[in-house]
Amino acid sequence: WSFESVAEMLFDKRFGCLEPEINKEAQAFIKAVGDFLYNLMGVGFLPTWFYKIYETEQLKEFLSSLDTMYEYAELFIQRRIRELEEQQKSQSHDSSRTLESDKAGFFEFLLSSGKLTKDDLLASVIDVLFAGVDTTSNTMQWVLYMMAKNPDKQDILRQEVLSVLGDTTLATPTTLTQMPYLKAWVRETLRLYPVLCIIARKPTEDITLNGYLIPRGTQIQFLTHVMGRDEKLFEDAEAFRPERWLRKKDAIPTDTAEAFSSIPFGFGTRMCIGRRIAELELHLLLARIVQQFEI
Fold first, then answer.
1. C-alpha angle 192/146/173, rounded to 5°?
2. Are residues 193 and 202 in contact, defined by beta-carbon separation less than 8 angstroms?
3. Neighbours of 188 (CB within 10 A)
4. pLDDT at 43 > cutoff 80
5. Are 124 and 110 in contact (CB under 8 A)?
6. Taking the chain, what is the end-to-end CA distance rounded to the nearest angstrom?
7. For residue 166, what are the contacts with CB-CB under 8 A and spacing of at least 6?
8. Distance (Å, rounded) from C-alpha 225 to C-alpha 200?
9. In this predicted model, what pLDDT tens digit does every residue of 230-266 receive, in sequence order?
10. Most buried in the list 112, 175, 216, 227, measured by CB within 10 Å?
11. pLDDT value at position 101?
């Protein structure tokens, strides 16, 4: 589901991941992502200089999965470029057909910008595909788990969704704005179960935090899982309370300190490139599940 969604957004085509016979190329890419993430932490425990002396089996598996990801991403890119070239040729021979530039997809946008090299394009596609597979599906599992653990709040969620959509209408970006509790549900899930337990950053200049001097270039790690469950930051932090993210009656949003204490996607220029895509996927699927099922 997650790969199918993000791949269609990128390449404006279905890969058939939800069909009985799953696309083998997509399967290979998804497996490579899983292997990459499985070995990531273990590889990171050893310093880079060690691997210049000796390559562990785990490092070999890690690099092999990375190569597979790049191999298939490049295959998808080249295939899409050929399709676009064929479309352009057919349109040039048939003047009656209108150009579809007004509804160009994300990939066409990147390609037509003229600012990206081949390597830049490949890296951008890899980032979006990689970020949109295990991360979104993992979060969706926790969303469903929270539904099962909190039936009373699930009833509130269902009432909101059915009042806006009924039991058959599909959600749209417009109708999603009318379902704040649904969005709060996803945000509260990410507070308790962020995809990444840490976010690493390196300051570009010397900074002082709580009296400690941190030289530029030092790696700093934000412990997102710990921050999200800190009683100093969140009242009743271990409890699942989507309403904590709803606007107060006086229209003043959640306290700033509390809002910035849960940043599962990061923040600023280095924020997750696929945040909006991931959120939209989660919101749309959650709305559909709530319409059809009781967890």
1. 90
2. no
3. 24
4. yes
5. yes
6. 19
7. 291
8. 13
9. 998 888 999 999 999 987 654 444 555 666 788 888 8
10. 227
11. 45
